[in-house]
Amino acid sequence: MKIKSFLRTALLVSTAIIAVSSNAADKIKIATEGAWAPFNFIDQSGNLKGFDVDIANALCEKMDSPCELVKQDWDGMIPALMVRKFDAIISSMSITEDRLKKVDFTDKYYSGGLRFMGSKSNKLDISKQSLKGKVIGAQRATIAGLHLENNYSDIAQVKLYDTQEAVYLDLVSGRLDVALSDELPTYDWLKGKDGASFEFKGDSFAKNDIIGIAVRKNDPVKQKLNAALAAIIADGTYADINAKYFPFSIY
Fold first, then answer.
1. What pLDDT, in 10s, does the model give residues 88-132?
2. Does the domain spanning 113-207 belong to CATH 3.30.390.10?
3. Segment 35-62, tens digit of pLDDT
4. Spatial CB neighbours of 71, under 8 Å, sequence gap ≥ 6
5. What residues does each domain of the chain span?
6. Does domain 2-111+209-245 have CATH number 3.40.190.10?
């Protein structure tokens, strides 16, 4: 009797452990920066908000998976993903060849382009001749930052920042003559109080900038996210989230 009782107890404990492990495996931890409004930012209550956050929540609902959103500094995004600090990055990350060497990406969930911005009182154009000797800023480790380093560092002072918010601050303070950023977050900033004295300079470019969700190489969560993404596009959920932030489609 004692032996049977012991075996029965051991079986129950083993079953409980397997169940907990299974539930833990179903949980998806998603990272975003929290400093790239309107895509991801921290509201006055300290909560993560924005387009990326709404998309993440919608995808989790479609997958019927418990999700946890965490804030992660931009520079540490991919390294933290690779050491399993979280399972996916939904933080307006562009799909690039360099990043694809380290991580996988889902299908796109929006696309955009780059655009310069500067003071309305400064009538300079964005030709290389006009920007010669100027101070130009962008967030580091972004498509905009790489573009400046590759194309303007020989004729201008290129300043790179840890966050987009820091770019805006130096632009407002006059420490930058012009800045380069993704067009969509800049569009949002220009509508606000801080951006009222600034405007786009020139047309947008690099419009093949495709934004996806980064996951670890060969992680099956990629297929789940792709299926959920297709579902929220098909049922109108994506369009509703889009309309909440932009009066035009960003897909």
1. 999 999 999 999 999 999 999 999 999 999 999 998 889 999 999
2. no
3. 999 999 999 999 999 999 999 999 999 9
4. 31, 32, 33, 34, 42, 48
5. 2-111+209-245, 113-207
6. yes
